[in-house]
Design a protein that fits this description.
766 residues; Far11/STRP_N; Striatin interacting protein 2; Far11/STRP
């Protein structure tokens, strides 16, 4: 039976021009099918199920704890338990930890902290392992994974209340400054997990405390809630004349990348740094809702006729759909009633309200004035004399959708402060956790960004091993390399999982920093962004996506029976090559999809409203790379891919737009547009040449002026007040040293009486 879809089935063959072809021209239908196949491939149509993924600040609590440990570390769970039980039996007779009263538990923890202050490094490590066993949930006395997680959280709050965090922070300072460990690691040809034992124990205790205290639950007692707020304050602000904890971890990252401390367990450092910054600062979900909501300012109130012409149903629908479109995974406010199926299925118009910037209104009026009256009025948007009535209506509509962002307000305030530094006075900067973090990072921020991107490059699956690249596997490689196929497969999974977790932590950390700095001040955000761009962050992210993203997202680099807390409760089954290859039954890898979305959001933030950086996307040929990511059927990931394609569409040429109409339609349907947005055309390309250097230099000058004005305050500033009154100056009391009184007469004789003074010359000069 003839296939109806095959060439020539019921249809005459045609040549490339669509005309009928005779015998001897069978290649034309094949060429047409090849073109259709290529077209389907370019549009990203592939059999991939829709992924049920919920984006959030982090993964589930158990998953975030399990990713702290590599599978190579699993034997150390038993070591930690043994160290605790040996110490516990010497202090408590005939009882277990879970049987003790709270006061007895506190007394035992106090004893542990006292025993930490010993000279012997080996004894101190055993006590630290006992504390780690408590933080891990005393799994030897638990029957289920739920019990382990419960007691881990309980013990972490108890440890914090007894001062364990401060004690371990001091030990971490000592271990970082341990030059002997650094020099020993530098002399070794191959570094293994044994070289970072002490650091891994300390960082694990600190991470478990941060992660468990960070987790909020409705059943938490008032004491736990108070402890959480105190802990946040302790992490945010400098205590005991020490820098904030996040800056210490940043210094560990730079020290590791410089090659001075290759034994640092960098995965644990990055995970802890990410969670500490998250604990300083506001939740990412809250920032998403705050940054993405529409704060339109209607300059002219609507008339009664206009209000009557717009039905209540349409206005409500626009608002509800706008909230849903901003972030597909942020639920609408509880006060909103759910939409009916009929109204969702047949919306009127696009599901968002368009935004208009002040610059858009100015540009529109400049063009209109040049066309109708022959001259312009600069930034004046109120004078409409001489313009026809339709232009009046257009300006009114534009102003109704005018959107003034926080960044615009901050830039305007900064310009005023630069113009009038004396009359406006000194700016009062609130000491928020974000502000303190920026002040601490300011002078070393370029090194921090370069270090993070170096590690991200080394962990990217598309990166090839090079001799000059940094070794990020020091805290996953065992002392003895595997000798069997099964051991090699297990280590291979562990290494891939290790790299995925590093990518996850760095992508989340960078996104979190950009979001908070942008909310705190736009030039803080621009400072971080510019150093990321200068460190080649844009091509690095594109290189990351230049792979089979679908395979990366569905990769199964995990062994569920070896994950914490499962491995502490159950007897480990015998692993086989089949069980290792099978992996878990999940549809996708949560951390990999989370990382991809973070990197896309990061790329969006770096390129938004930056013409030169958008042209970098074009020059690096990002369009085919990004389009391949559309094969992943996940709404949030596709939204940010389409945003990146939208900003460069006008520069890709008419042929590209013609060949990718499905992508163009998706952009039109899913991505918000400006009122007078010409994203699908190339009208202003000739008027805007690509001058990367000039644009970035102007931005850099503004950033440096901001940093200099706010953070560089020398004592001899030209704007500092000067006392010109002779009596006031001579009447000031000066504190002189005690020995001056004894040598005063000698000073007068040497410096005053014995020095000849030519009064005529002195009067002439003055």
């Amino acid at each position: 039976m003839e296939d109806p879809a095959a060439p020539g089935a019921g249809n005459p063959p045609t040549n490339g021009n669509g005309n009928g072809g005779g015998k001897g021209k069978p290649a034309a239908p094949k060429g047409r099918e090849a073109f259709r196949s290529q077209r389907r491939e370019s549009e990203g149509s592939v059999d991939c199920p829709t992924l049920e993924f919920e984006y959030g600040d982090a993964d589930g609590h158990a998953a975030e704890l399990s990713e702290l440990y590599s599978y190579t570390e699993n034997p150390e769970f038993t070591t930690n338990r043994r160290c605790f039980e040996e110490d516990f039996k010497t202090q408590v007779q005939g009882e277990e930890w879970l049987e003790l009263e709270e006061d007895a538990q506190k007394a035992y923890v106090m004893g542990l902290l006292d025993r930490l202050e010993v000279v012997s490094r080996e004894r101190r490590l055993k006590v630290a392992r006992a504390v780690l066993y408590l933080a891990q949930g005393t799994f030897g006395e638990c029957d289920s994974e739920v019990d382990v997680l419960h007691w881990s959280r309980y013990n972490c709050f108890l440890l914090y209340q007894m001062g364990t965090f401060s004690a371990f922070l001091e030990l971490l300072h000592m271990e970082i400054d341990n030059s002997q460990a650094c020099s020993s690691a530098l002399r070794k040809p191959a570094i293994s997990i044994a070289d970072s034992t002490e650091l891994r124990v300390l960082l694990s205790v600190l991470y478990l405390m941060v992660e468990n205290i960070r987790l909020e639950r409705e059943t938490d007692s008032c004491g736990w809630r108070t402890a959480r707020e105190t802990f946040r304050t302790e992490l945010s602000f400098s205590t005991h004349n020490q820098e904030p904890f996040a800056l210490l971890l940043f210094s560990m990252v730079t020290k590791f990348c410089s090659g001075l401390a290759p034994h640092f367990p960098i995965k644990k450092v990055l995970l802890l740094l990410w969670k500490v910054v998250m604990q300083l600062l506001t939740k990412q979900d809250s920032l998403d809702i705050y940054n993405e909501r529409d704060l339109f300012k209607t300059e002219e109130p609507a008339t009664e006729e206009e209000e009557e012409s717009a039905s209540d149903g349409e206005r409500t629908l626009d608002g509800e759909l706008d909230l849903l479109e901003q972030d597909p995974l942020v639920p609408p406010p509880p006060s909103q009633a759910p939409l009916s199926a009929e109204r969702v299925a047949f919306p009127k118009g696009l599901p968002w309200a368009p935004k208009v910037r002040q610059k858009d209104i100015e540009h529109f009026l400049e063009m209109s004035r040049n066309k109708f009256i022959g001259f312009t009025l600069g930034q004046d948007t109120d004078t409409l004399v001489g313009l026809p009535r339709p232009i009046h209506e257009s300006v009114k509509t534009l102003k109704q959708h005018k959107y003034v962002s926080i960044a615009d307000v901050q830039i305007k305030n900064e310009e005023e402060l630069e113009k009038c530094p004396m009359s406006l006075g000194e700016e009062v900067v609130p000491e928020t956790p974000c502000e303190i973090l920026y002040q601490g990072m300011l002078y070393s921020l370029p090194q921090y960004m370069i270090a993070l991107l170096k590690i991200l490059l080394a962990a990217a699956p598309t990166s090839k091993a090079k001799t000059d690249s940094i070794n990020i596997l020091a805290d996953v490689l065992p002392e003895e390399m595997p000798i069997t196929v099964l051991q090699s497969m297990k280590l291979g999974i562990d290494v891939n999982r290790h790299k995925e977790i590093i990518v996850k932590s760095i992508s989340a950390l960078l996104l979190l920093l950009l979001k908070h700095f942008k909310l705190n001040h736009i030039y803080q955000f621009e400072y971080v962004s510019q150093h990321l761009v200068f460190a080649n962050c844009i091509p690095l992210i594109l290189k990351f996506f230049n792979q089979n993203i679908l395979s990366y997202i569905t990769a199964k680099n995990g062994i569920s029976v070896l994950d914490y807390p499962c491995c502490t409760i159950q007897d480990l089954p015998e692993l086989t090559t089949e069980s290792l290859e099978a992996g878990d039954n999940n549809q996708f890898c949560w951390r990999n999809l989370f990382s991809c979305i973070n990197l896309l959001r990061l790329l969006n933030k770096l390129t938004k409203w930056k013409h030169s950086r958008t042209m970098m996307l074009v020059v690096f040929k990002s369009a085919p790379i990004l389009k391949r990511a559309l094969k992943v059927k996940q709404a949030m990931l596709q939204l940010y891919v389409l945003k990146l394609l939208k900003i460069q569409t006008k520069y890709l040429g008419r042929q590209w737009r013609k060949s990718n109409m499905k992508t163009m339609s998706a952009i039109y349907q899913k991505v918000r547009h400006r009122m007078n947005d010409d994203w699908a055309y190339g009208n202003d390309i000739d008027a805007r040449p690509w001058d990367f250097q000039a644009e970035e230099c102007t931005l850099r000058a503004n950033i440096e002026a901001f940093n200099s004005r706010r953070y560089d305050r020398p004592q001899d500033s030209e704007f500092s007040p000067v006392d010109n009154c002779l009596q006031s100056v001579l009447g000031q009391r000066l504190d002189l040293p005690e020995d001056f009184h004894y040598s005063y007469e000698l000073w007068l004789e040497r410096e005053v009486f014995s020095q000849p003074i030519c009064w005529e010359e002195l009067l002439q000069n003055h």
